[in-house]
């Protein structure tokens, strides 16, 4: 029997398990998915926890709920990938053979990479919100904090959901206004980027929003270390930013198994073709989502759009046909801007975010690069869509390729 092995039971791995089980003959193909965790996290929901809108129960469900019948689910640490042997070694000594391998191991935050970040101030006046533990600890802190210098810092790029740090400071602004503390809270957005976002047009608009909300942006800040005694961030060019509470977006890396298996780049992201999603070194290995070194956002929408392409190209590989699928870098993101409003961006490898309507030209209902209440509701609705449609590999009414329809140049 042929064997398809999927490493990682997060968004990408779960979607592909559902899609591939639907199209591959059960008598000919054995499908196995491996992950070290039993729990599936709705990661976009972490943003809402520090401000009391969600709690942990709102963002977690058992992974078993989404693994389709007929797919083997193994909960175990992955020790090593041996691509020359078409094998994966698990931590308990079990060896899994494969004919085709999908790597969906995602990305991880590594705060220990930054000196001083996880010292005596960690989870006391230095927090992250990219983990459930960090988001929950920050929610407790905000309940009694009376104000001071709040600094959000992006330690390095790339990161998961590049708009999430912006959403955090927008939400913080509204949160402290509602509590009558905004005059006592100074908010700074400290980033290694030259502006608020990676794309120029969006960066300008989002930068204007920061200015309107009296949020100071400090660009081109490359973090070297945290001075715990002085409570300051120190950059490589010796600039300092003081803080009373620091919200850190730590360094991100690929899964440690990628590094140990020699499949990744310097940051542990699998080297793969940005269009075909095939490994740069092995024809029977494919990559999806945050695990790859693709030059696009590490975001859930990317996984959704890549999944359609990966399904197509994996079937081409199995049937020994030329690839017919090509991923264009399509990504879209809702951006919470506070006060019950949100924005939306839609872009790909070659086209930056543009104004207009999405997904239907002239109708929308969502507006691109502008604040509206319907965009905020779109973000809230996405949680239901994620659990009930996206993870189960069902069709969504949005094409995987970006369209210019409805956009204004």
Folded structure, characterized:
The protein is α/β, with parallel strands linked by helices. The chain has helices at 11-23, 132-142, 164-178, 200-212, 256-261, 300-318, 373-390, and strands at residues 2-7, 29-35, 39-41, 60-62, 71-75, 78-82, 87-90, 95-97, 100-103, 107-109, 126-127, 148-154, 185-190, 215-218, 223-227, 232-235, 240-242, 245-249, 252-254, 285-287, 331-338, 341-347, 356-360, 364-368. The strands form 8 sheets. The protein has a 5-stranded parallel sheet, covered by helices on one side. Strands 11-18-12-13-14 form a 5-stranded parallel sheet. The termini are far apart. The model has no long low-confidence stretch (mean pLDDT 95).
